[in-house]
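debug: dumping io for the single-chain case to check the tokenizer round-trip. Nothing else runs in this session.
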Amino acid sequence: MDHGWAYESRDGQHFVATELTRGPWDPGHQHAGPPTALVCRAIEHAAADQGLRHLARLTGNLLRPVPIGELRVEVTPDYVGRNAGHYAARLLAGGKEVARFTALMQREDDEPVPAGTPGHPLPAPPRAPADCPPVLMPFARSGQRGYGTFVENRLAEGTFFSGPCTAWFRMRHPLVAGETPSPYQRVAVAADSGNGISAALDFARYVFVNCDLTINLLRRPVGEWICLAARTGLGGNGCGLAESALYDEHGLIGRATQSLAVRRRDGAA
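debug: decoded output
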């Protein structure tokens, strides 16, 4: 069935994933970006009641592959103060916990940066999305609907799956049916792709799945486009780290990191 959204809400806590969430590793598993954004959405809703509207950090521990099917999201406040709140969340599928998250939400205030502050203004994005050519992720070229068709990409620097790479992401469809995604949800959808777009190893011979994702943001993103300037480092011990500088069209908004498990595919020379 052809859906124009990633998830359909059942009751605000239960969701059904569509084929637009499909990732590159297994046709029955989701890319981690959309479910991370779904949890981000739930945390934003929980924190809004306390007036905490800036997502400063989101960390996801990816415990199991997330199946394309029904999901349940649970959010618990760990500590809520006047200026910051710490939240925990769980993502469940088939009665099993598939991912666990923590988040820091902050209260925003109008506090302009004084002129002449060292290191400011922050870096501008490498190139505007309008000046970058459209590109498809390699696993989207088969015509199978999934994450590669859920997002639109424009290439700013480098080449997909060939080392350091900078690319823009924009969601083509809503995260949840009938809703406009928040700026933070747009970041979460894109940020998990750093290890993919900057892959240094042959996708046909190696698996390099991220076991976690941490997003740190210094301000609220603006607009629909999110840019990742990504680089993958390999330790030579079956482990690695992908790092992404995150931008909107106005400049730097934060960073994302992913810890990688690197393995040779069965039968690969």
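debug: round-trip ok. The mean pLDDT is 95.
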